[in-house]
Design goal:
The chain is mostly helical and 223 residues long. The chain has a single domain, classed as Rhopdopsin 7-helix transmembrane proteins. The chain has helices at residues 2-22, 28-56, 64-85, 89-112, 120-139, 153-173, 175-181, 183-213. Helix 1 runs antiparallel to helix 2 (28-56), helix 3 packs antiparallel against helix 4 (89-112) and helix 4 (89-112) runs antiparallel to helix 5. The model is unreliable at 216-223 (pLDDT under 50).
Length: 223
Amino acid sequence: MLSEIIIESFGLVVATFVGIFYYRLVNGFYRLLFIQLISWLFLYVLSYMVTEYQRSKGMSQNNQWVFNLQILFETTLLLFAANLFFQNKFAKRMLMFTWVLFLLFYASRIVAGNFFEFDVASYSVESILIIVVYTLILFTSFYEVFTIEVRKPEVWASTGLILYFGCNLPYFSLFNFLNNNYPEMSETLHKHVTDVFSNVRYLMLAIGFILVSKTSSTVTQVP
């Protein structure tokens, strides 16, 4: 149990300490990414507290509502971080419009569905939104010279997010089906897909923290 927690949270913990160390040196884009990281760390701990409490009381274990909250917080913070990145007013307005539409969709799903069951539809919409938005951010790192500049910190943060959501989307879109009918397969996929790409995501974010702190210039922005 302890070894599993260490493995699945390794990247998260590394990024947290790196982010704390460099927080004062990074810009608003990375500060919001750090706040998102901290919100996930808090909810990650809460999910284990919930299951441990349920286990101690002899109750059935269900912490999926915690991850429904995570969908809301994560999407909001990642879209607001992207809003800080883009300087074009149209892009900013479109991001905020997209966020409002997501809130309406999320609220309708939670009200109409079961809050205590993981909402795969909201997660799928979140994944698609983040993949599209952060692919656009990544594109700005090479749209002028047609080459990816690996020294640009946003390349690392964006790539980590794209990999995480892109590789997890197929699994989580079927999460409830697999969890209810093939729990062993679901657990295996979680260990070999979600945990792996979670570590990739946050380790790449940690690299971004280091890179952005070592330059006095702000994150490259869309003119």
